[in-house]
Amino acid sequence: MLGGSFWIALLRNAISTGLMLSFFFMLDRPRFSMKKTAWCYIIFGVSMVTAYSVWYLAAKSSFVRFAALSALPAVGIFCSIMSSEVLYLSLYKMALAFYLFSVCTFCGVDVTRWWFEGNLWIDILVRFVCFVLILIFTWFKFRKQFLGGVDFLLQEMDLFSAAALFVSVMLGAIMAYWPNLQGFSVFNMVRAFLILFMAGTLQYAILHLYIHLGQEHYYQAEKELLEVNEQLLHQQMDLMRESKIEAARIRHDVRHHTLLIREYVQKRSMISFLRILHSMMKMWKNGK
Length: 288
Known about the structure:
The chain has 288 residues and is mainly alpha-helical.
């Protein structure tokens, strides 16, 4: 942390809290109506920013040590309550939000200390730029992809795999974020950048893998259903062919009996005529 006044801390806290809440909100299917959910997020965000800014003013050293880590359970519990998703999916999204918060903090603090001699306003500007870029990418690129594949993700992801992903993201974010609390060095900055880059790339690849597996299983089930429908259609076509053959046979029999009836009527052979009628009635009764 670069220090600063209460208002500087207020701006930092607003950017960090807004990033985590906005990212989670964009990827979530809320439990309540959109209007009610938005107001709850705004009220919680304002309350959290105010509380953490007061904490910074009252005890700066403890704030620097514990603010980032304590924000995760606070935001996580609130977002899990507001979400209609299963718990492990909410945990995973919260871990991603904390990861992005760590990226934003890393860019703001270390870039400012390296190139701008720790200028507080440059720190705020860099964090704000990262905040805007992350939300733009999430809204226009990642959100549609995530929500479109979230059902596949739920099919493939269980509690164990979500916990493993959550732990890996958290370890990457904390390991990258923690050196920023100590003395600045190029080695720490490069190490933090590499850790964040590898953690982000790994999670993005795993997310694509889960969605791809879910889509593959869905298409496999669709293929099996189409095969069953194809078999039923073949059976129906066979029945239709048999029905056509049977109908042709019946037409032939009716034509034959009609000719006989006409012949017997012309000859006025009533006994033969009655025999033919009896034969036809017997044939119809037997379904032949």
